[in-house]
Structure formats: structure tokens, C-alpha cells
Amino acid sequence: MKKVLAILLAGMMTATAFAGCGGSGNASSSGSSNSSGGSSAKASGGKVDEAMFGDETNISLKVWAPDKGVSLAKEQIETFKKMYPNIKFKNIEVVAQGENDAATQLVNDPNKAADVFSFPSDQLNKLDAAKCLSPVSKAFVEDISAVNAEGTVKAATLKDSKTKEEVLYAYPETNDNGYYLVYDKKVVSDDTAKTLEGILKACKDAKKEFVMDCGNGFYSCTFAFTGGAVIDGFEDDGETQKFKEYDENEAVDTLMAFAKLMKEYKGTWKSQDPAQIASGFKNGTLGAGVDGSWNSVADKEALGDNFGATKLPTINVNGKDKQLISMFGYKYLGVNAKTKFPRTAHILAYYLSSEECQQQRAEKIGWGPSNTKVQETDFVKNDVTLQAIAAQSKNAVAQVNIQGTFWQAMGTLGNEMMKDGWKPDDKAATKKLLQTTIADVRDEG
Amino acid sequence: MTFVEYKMLNPFQRFAYNFKKFFKNIPSAIGRFFKACGRGIKKFIFGIGKGFKNYGTTFVKGDWATKLSYLIFGVGDLHKGKTYKGILFFLVEVLYALYMIFFGWGWFKDFFTLGTRKTYVTYDEMGFPVNHPGDESMKILLYSTLTIVITAIVFVVYIANIKDAYRHQVMKQNGQKPTTLKQDAQEFLDGKYHITLLSFPVLMIGIFNILPLIFMILIAFTNYSKEHFTLFNWVGLQNFGQLFDVINSNKKATTFIGIAGWTLLWAVVATFSNYILGMVVALMINKKGIKLKSLWRTLFVITIAVPQFVSLLLMNQMLQENGAVNILLGQLFNGGQSMGIKFLTDNVWTARITVMVVNCWVGIPYTILSMSGILMNIPEDLYESARIDGASPVKTFTAITLPYMIFVTTPQLITQFVGNINNFNVIFLLSGGGPTTTEYFGAGKTDILVTWLYNLSMGNEQDYGLASAIGILVFIICATLSLIVYNNSKSMKDEEAFS
Predict the structure, then answer these.
(1) What local confidence, expressed as pLDDT, does residue A276 receive?
(2) Among B residues 316-375, those touching chain A with beta carbons less than 8 Å apart
(3) CA nearest B129: which of A134, A131, A168, A338?
(4) Are B168 and B89 in contact (CB under 8 A)?
């Protein structure tokens, strides 16, 4: 008896070694509904001919949307089902999945991942490298290119590695993934918000802080971009980051101008995570900050009527005011290449990126539309943040085709300039820093 | 130096003597270690040679059934009347053949190229994309590894089959009868009980630990990275070469050497600061005449009740430029204005020292806990006799308490040292590797090897091949150091000293 017990115990001990390997269920919503609806014609405005579904029936799909968008996506999918009364849908479930690691999750196990998912533009290359994206159906390409902003479509267009054709890989969803200037109108007036020097001075005079994250490549690339060192996709090898031709002296002068302001306004200009901006406004320690569109609701709440938002300011370099150039991304809807119902998945993604759905998203969850018609609606035109984002997007570099080495190198650039020991007047050191940064981005170390 | 001479030295001289001796012994210890490795390898090679020899001689001496067992498993056993074992052997061969035909070979044939067919897309008549999946190197490598391991196991069974066939042949020549199934089963509950007990755990460890380990080690020899995600290739020692390429001042080599140096320094300081300070606090609490002992003990142990990552993230917040520590310092010394010291993001050594100090907060309670237990366990009669002999408190400490504690805790020290080399939590959650630097590739100044490895695999770089190579090197460093230290410790050499 003792021996049997010993065997059991030994077995249990090893069982604990992999006790953590269990799977976890996903919350989902489902329900098939069939009710009457109008018939459809060809592919435009999100609607297609029912013949396009081909022989797909008993359709079950999984859709990933970020937490905030889940309930809206469910509503939109119900509408979608009603649009095609003759197609048999078994189950279209919506699962909450943060966009920030949508690509990682998808690449890890494409067979269990969503069929249609929302992702930001910087993950496009990763998804393409892993061959997880099914390119946009040729039936929809024309319509999508016509109704969406040019930049959005262009950023999702990559060269196919085999045929060298230009292929549109994903359905545009938003045009708002960027950062802009938010300020407390009591501290910074609309007029002073136009120049960085003015903002910093106003903040310092009011004993308030100005927050811009200099250690995060997403924000600190502004320093290099403003100086003209702008990225431009990849070299021909498809791996090395390409830069547009730029005047090194000008870039160095710009960096020195930034570093000078950092030194001059030490204690005012704080390099912090933008997540702390809203609480800073609430506590009254903050005068202005560079914040992302995803925090705009919290910022608005914190400042109330004093909430100001506009494009990034200008900086004075050798007597000339230069507009700050930022990084700007888009969000897309992608279709999983391993989906079992490719046609339905494409038709659904097409519908979700349509004018109707973008309008709903702008109104209900405040996502900036990429559809040019929605961009012209009163609702979008009257929204301060959406307008600030739209204005900044004209002075921005698309967040696509970016090498992984980019982020850390740019973050280090900002960190180095922020360091107490950094000398803003040291032209040689600044030049070396710029050169090292560019070499690191291009992985030429 | 003789024992008497040693006893005549004062404590400082003794310490200097021991210190010198320790460092003088290091080269010979390392030498012994490599000699032992050499012996092991030699033994292994000789073992293989012997195996081949036996393989040949058995074939020559075997009868027809034994000879046939070289091709068909179990024939020898069946022929000699050991039916059940013969059938089992034969089943293994059949199953292996089926596995190879229907699964294993399909993957293994691509093992040397890791796949060549690319994924591509075509469009159907309505314009919808049709996906044509190509090879996936990852799966090829995974299933090939599985196939290799299974083949190795079957090979072991094959050799056992031959040995068994020959053994039964000899038994038959001597007029003995083979044992029955019932007898064998009985044997597994008696003489071979250890096999019954351990086979399941060993099997599970094989599947869940060894197999993934082989797979991960193999990745170090490929160029698996973001650029080669679906299809990758063997690159030999290129990943290791990059890490040691000092001559061309490769940035990865600079990073590796810089980080490896800091990792060792960090591990030594983190281990001994916790150990010594923990011991001091434990001694103070355990001292006779201290009141409310259990209260103090509980207070220190409470810090363990807060999960480590929570305290570390809190510390990280407190040490920010606008964090609690700076505000407090400002209130005390700067007239209410925040000091604005950048503990973790600016100066290299400020950040490194901060990390080490915060690590004490996390680590000391554990040392106190184990030390208190050990202190309470030291036989009281040792102290009593020391008192009778008129030993001073310092003397009792150096002659009884310290040796006893070091003796008991050496293995624990080694574990802690290795744990600190791989102390991911403290670095990652506290400083995140910062301050960043332009000198390193994908790492900051407080990054240690594991956090760098994490950056390389989970961060933006996604250079899995390089990360895997670093992992192997970390293992080699840890294993070598622990073996050398453990084999030279008193706990190993003189197991019975205090029992």
C-alpha cells in the first residue's frame, strides 16, 4: 500500500511541474439572428452582393476589438448579419483584445486567433513577416482607396516580396493614432501654445510643469524628425531603415536647440510617461504636455473648460521657427490568413471599415475617422482633439515600415539629451550622438 | 603554515590568510573542474567504444535468433520463450516504423534545410485572396527534435533488445529458464521498485523539460528573428561569434562583455549584501536580552507578505524624479522644492547603487528568516562549553556561530548567487534596464544578461537566435561557478562536521 501511495505522490509532484499549462476560456457573445432586410447590390459603402459569400455557410468567426470598442463592434456585427438575411451565420463572437499586442497574440497562434482583428499600423510589418495577414480583397481595393484618406491607404500598402506588386494589406479603421499638445488654458494661452519657447516660459512663470516623454522613441523621434532626419521605409534589402536625405548641420542645430530648452527649463520640462498627464492636470502641477489621442477623454475631464488642444508647437532654430514633426499612426482591420471563412471575414472587415461604422466610432468612442466623408462631418469638425490630431497628422511621419531597432535608439537619443551632464552647446558631442543614433537605427553598430 | 602557527595569528591576520588562500586556490579549483570535465568526456567516449565492441562481439557469439534480433526487435526473446517481452520489443519497432512513415520523416527530411517553400497569395475569380501556406521552420524544428528524441529512445530499446536476446541465449545454454511475466511484475514492486517509482516523473520531465530545452538550444544555431520569422536557416556559431567579436568592436560583443561584467558584480554584491546584512539583523534579534523577539521577526517577515513585484513597482514610482523620495528629501533639505534626483535614469553608478540598495529591502527578510532558524538550532552545549572555557562573545561568534552558519548555508548561498545572476524581477521592474546608453545594443546600463535576453526576444529586436545563444552562455556561467564553489565548500567535503 505504501508503495502505491509513493507512486501516486511521485506522479503528483511531476504533475505540479506543468500545472500552469492550462488554457483559459474567452468571454464571448453570440447568437444567430435572422430577420428581414433589404437586398444588396455591388461592393460599395460596406455592402456587397450576397453571391460574394460563395459557398460559405454555417459561418462562425471571431473578432478582436479593444475593450473600449467591444460593445460597439457587437452592435455593428448585428447590423451586418441583418444585411444578409439569406446567409447562414452560426456565430460571430467579439473578444476583447488590446491592440498593442494584437500582432504578438496572432503570430503566437494564428489558428486560435481572431479572423478579423484591429491593430495599429506599426504592427503591419510583423504580421506581414509572419505571413499572418490576408491582403485586402481585390473586389474592395478600389472603393477603399477612393473613400479613405490617402495617407492611411498608402501606409498599409506594401510590396509583395515575391511578385513585387503593390498590395493593400488591411482595411483602414482610424486616422488618429498620434500625439499632440494639450494645455491648461489658465496657464498657456492659445497664442503662446504656438511656440515651444512660449509654452515653457508660461509654464515656468506659473511654476507648472511641461511633460513630454523623451525616453520613449515614439515621442522622442520628434527631435530627429524636426531636424530633418526623417525615416522613409526600408532600403532595398527590406531590413535596414532608410532615412530621407537631410542636412546634418541643420539636424544637429535642431537637437542643440531642443537640448538648450531642456537645460534652460530644467525642472519645468519633465520627461515622464504621458499616462501621468491627466493626473498632473487634476493636481494642478501641470501646465501643458504632449499627450496621445487615447488619453484625450481623461485630459478633457481633468481640465474641463480650460482644456486646450492643438498641433505640436514650433521651435526656434537659429532664428527660424520650425514646426515639430511627430510620429503618426493609423489603425487597421486585418484578416487572418488562416481564417476558415475567408470571404465572410473579408466582407465583414470591409463593412467594419465603411463610412457608416467609422461615423459610429467617431461619435460613440471618439476615434478619429480615416474616411474622408466622415472627416468632413460637423461632429468631427467641432471636436477639438480630433481637429488637433488632424492638424498634427499633416506634420507627421507615418508609423509604418519601422525597424525594431528604431524605438530604443530614438529613446536613448532623448534620454541622453535629458541627462544632467549633457552640454547643449557641445556641437561635436551632439553630432556624434546623432550619428550613433542613426547608425543604431540602421543596425550598423 | 602549521596549525599552531595559524592559531597564534590575530583575527585580522587569519582573515587575510584565509582570503589569500581562497584566491590562491581559485586557479587550481578551476583546473580541477576542467580536469573533471575532461575525465567525464573521456569516460563517455570510452563507454561508446565499449558499446560498439559489445555490439560486435554479441553478434559474432549470438545464435540465429539473436542475430535476427539485430533487424527485427524481440525475435531472440520470442525464440527463447520470453514471449511477452519479445512482443513488447516487436511492438516498439512497429510503432516506431508507423510513426516515422506517417509523421516523423515528413518533418525530419526538412531538418537540414528547415524548409524552403515560401508562403504566397493568389486571388480567386471574385478577387478574394487565397492563402497558400509554405513551410514553417519553427514546426519543422520542433517536430524534428521530437523525432530525434524518439529515435534516441528507440535506439536504447534496440540495444536493450539485443542485450536481452543474448542474455537469454546464455541463460538457455546454462540450462536456466526465462522468468515469467508474473515474476517480472513482482520484481518491479521489489528489487526494481525504484524504476516503477521514477519512470513516470522521468518521462514527464523528459517531455516538459528536456525536449523544449533541446529545441531552445538548437534555436541558438539558427537565424530565427523578426526578419526570418516563418523561414529561417542554420547559421552555425554565428550568434556566438557576434557575442565574442571583440576585434571588430562589434556592438553586440561590447554589450555582452559590458553586461556580463555588471551581471557578475551585481550577483556578488546582491548576494553578499543580503547575506551579511540579513545575518547581522538575525543575530541582533536572536541576542539574549532582546525583548519582543517575535514582534521584530514578524515585522521583517511582513515585507515578504507583500508580493515582490508590488514592492518593486512601488519603489520604482517612489524613486522617480517627482516621486516620494525626492519630495521627502526636498522637504528636509531643499525648502519644500523637490530635489529632482534622477535615481534610475541618469548616472550609471547612481542607478546601479540604487538597484543594489533596493534589492536589500526585497532580499534581507528571507535571509533573516532562514538565519533565525539556523541560529536557534545551534546546540546550546557548544556555547556552554565555550563559556566554561572563558571564551569572549566575539570568540564564540567566530569559532561557533559563523562556521556553523556558513557550513549550513553554503548551498543556499550558491542558489542565491545563481538566482541573482538571473534576477529578472529586480532589474526589470525597478530600473527597466535604464539608464539607456548609446554604447549598448538593445540594453541599458543596469540590464543584466537575462533582462537583455528578454529585450532581445520579447522587445523590439526579436532576435531569438541571439537571445538563445545568450541563454546558453548564462547557463554555462551559472553551472561552472556553482559546481566549482559547491565542490570546494565544507558542506560538500566534510558532510558530517556538525552532525
Answers:
(1) 85
(2) 320-322, 340, 342, 345-347
(3) A134
(4) no
B353 and B219 belong to one structural domain: no
DSSP structure string for B26-94: HHHHHHHHHHHHHHHHHHHHHHHHHHHHHHHHHHHH--HHHHHHTTSTTHHHHHTT-HHHHHHHHHHHH
- In tens, the pLDDT along A290-349 reads 998 888 888 888 998 899 999 999 999 998 899 999 998 899 999 999 999 999 999 999
- Per-residue pLDDT of A198-207, as tens digits, reads 999 999 999 8
3-state secondary structure of A50: helix
**Pairs across A and B, CB distance < 8 A:** 139
Q: Are residues B83 and B65 in the same domain?
A: yes
The residues, ordered by sequence, that sit 6+ positions from A336 with a Cβ below 8 Å of its Cβ are A106, A110, A113, A114, A115, A116, A117, A132, A133, A134, A345
Whether residue B189 lies inside any domain: the answer is yes
Assess if residue B435 is contained within a domain.
yes
Nearest CA in chain A to B228: A129
What CATH code is assigned to A177-328+400-441?
3.40.190.10
pLDDT attached to residue B388: 92
Shortest Cα distance, chain B CAs vs residue A321, angstroms: 29
Domain that holds residue B26: 1-54
Give span(s): CATH 3.40.190.10, chain A. 54-175+329-393, 177-328+400-441
- Nearest-CA distance A282 → chain B (Å): 16
Across the interface, whether the CB atoms of B250 and A138 are under 8 A apart is answered: no
pLDDT in tens, B148-172: 999 999 999 999 999 999 999 999 9
How close, in Å, is residue B251 to chain A by CA atoms?
A: 5
Contacts of A136 in chain B (CB under 8 A): 129
DSSP-assigned states of every residue in B423-450: -HHHHHHHTTTPSB-SSSSS-BTT--HH
Tell me: do B182 and B78 sit in the same domain: yes
Query: Do B363 and B460 fall into the same domain?
Result: yes
Question: Contacts from B123-126 at CB under 8 Å and sequence distance 24+?
Answer: B123/A137, B123/A138, B126/A52, B126/A54, B126/A137, B126/A139, B126/A343
- Number of domains within chain B: 3
Crossing angle between the packed helical segments B402-421 and B251-286, to the nearest 10 degrees: 150
My answer on whether B85 and B179 are in the same domain is yes
One domain for residues B439 and B297: yes
Cα(A383)–Cα(A390) distance, integer angstroms? 11
**Which pLDDT band, with edges at 50, 70 and 90, does B499 fall under?**
low
Residue B114 lies in a domain: yes
Average pLDDT, chain B: 88
> Is the predicted pLDDT of residue B121 greater than 60, yes or no?
yes
CATH of domain A54-175+329-393: 3.40.190.10
Q: What is the share, in percent, of chain B residues with pLDDT greater than 70?
A: 98
pLDDT digits (tens, 9 = 90+) for A405-426: 898 899 999 999 988 889 988 9
Say what the pLDDT of residue B40 is.
92
* Crossing angle for the helix pair B193-205 and B181-188, to the nearest 10 degrees: 70
Within a domain: B498: no
CA quadruple A407, A413, A419, A425: dihedral, nearest 10: -170
Is some CB atom of chain A closer than 8 A to the CB atom of B434?
yes
> What does the pLDDT read at residue A41?
37
Same domain (yes/no): B373, B441: yes
**Single residue among B235, B255, B287 that ends a domain in this structure:** B235
Q: Which of residues 439-478 of B touch A (CB under 8 A)?
A: 441-442, 459-462
Same domain, residue pair B32 and B85: no
